[in-house]
Amino acid sequence: MNSIFYCKIISLCNKTLEVFPLEVLLLSANLPELPSKEELLRHATFTFLVDGISRACSHQLVRHRPASYSQQSQRYVAMKNFPFVEPETVRGVKVELEGKEMGFKELMELVGKFYEGLVEKGVPKEDARFVLPNACTTRIVFTMNGEELVHFLRLRTCSRAQWEIREVAVEMLKILREKFPGLFDGVGPNCYYLGYCTEGKKTCGRPEEVRELFRNLK
Ligand SMILES: Cc1cc2nc3c(=O)[nH]c(=O)nc-3n(C[C@H](O)[C@H](O)[C@H](O)COP(=O)(O)OP(=O)(O)OC[C@H]3O[C@@H](n4cnc5c(N)ncnc54)[C@H](O)[C@@H]3O)c2cc1C
């Protein structure tokens, strides 16, 4: 089976960004006909597009080594009015800076202006980007084989994973379950996949609740 489920014209460079919410698309999946699920997962490949995640999140994603990545360039893409992810916990929080109460958005605007100022003064984008924060959004395309994908999902759907990459992993899993229920219905965090938690002292302590969540995930 070789399918393109979604089609979207993407440009990983030379594109001025607009603000958009998190988007997770399965661009393609190649599943050879093989007798066992294990072999099928070893040889199957899945290509995802993830758009609107923070650089903090993409940094965690690319730590997964057996995969190929193409990420939007900050060397060539103008980050004018750069879009950013605002964690819920910082919403409404003000910090006094240089005698002025400042919120997260205001600081991002300030950084954006500084970045633009540098570019206007002739600083190359590849150097001006040094002022850009982890919150800055990015777009990334990646391909994993089925084995690595399951490994990734087991780690990153777990409550221990950071909230943003967990959100991405859960969205990926929802898509995979819809398209390939036989392969992915049993996939989720280790407490669901293996039937027991592997996190030791760092366990969330709610395995039953989490298992129930992943049994019913659609
Ligand atoms: C909850 C959580 C917290 C984390 N916190 C931190 C942190 O504080 N600091 C930090 O630096 N990182 C952190 N990480 C990232 C973590 O250290 C790994 O970089 C990430 O999980 C990817 O590595 P991996 O071994 O899981 O699997 P992958 O890189 O996805 O590889 C999958 C498997 O392939 C095999 N493999 C891959 N590459 C090789 C190789 N070169 N040689 C041999 N075998 C290989 C291994 O069996 C590996 O388990 C965290 C991850 C999680 C899930």
Provide a descriptive summary of the structure in words.
The strands form two sheets. Strands 1-2-3-7-4 form a five-stranded antiparallel β-sheet. 37% of the residues lie in helices and 18% in strands. The protein has two domains: 126 residues, Alpha-Beta Plaits, CATH 3.30.70; 43 residues, no CATH class. By secondary structure, it is of the alpha+beta class. The two termini are 23 Å apart. The longest helix is centred in the middle third of the chain and has 17 residues. The site of flavin-adenine dinucleotide has 10 residues, from helix 5.
Ions, cofactors and other bound molecules: flavin-adenine dinucleotide
Helix content: 25-40%
CATH architecture of the largest domain: 2-Layer Sandwich
Strand content: 15-25%
Major sheet: arrangement of strands? 1-2-3-7-4
- Helix count, DSSP H or I runs of 4 or more residues: 9
- Protein structure class: alpha+beta
Number of domains: 2
Q: What is the fold named in CATH at topology level of the largest domain?
A: Alpha-Beta Plaits
Return the average pLDDT rounded to an integer: 89
- Gross morphology is globular
Q: Give the terminus-to-terminus CA distance.
A: 23 Å
Regions with little confidence, pLDDT below 50 for 5+ residues:
1-19
Order of helices and strands: EEHEHEEEHHEHHHHH
Topology, number of strands: 7
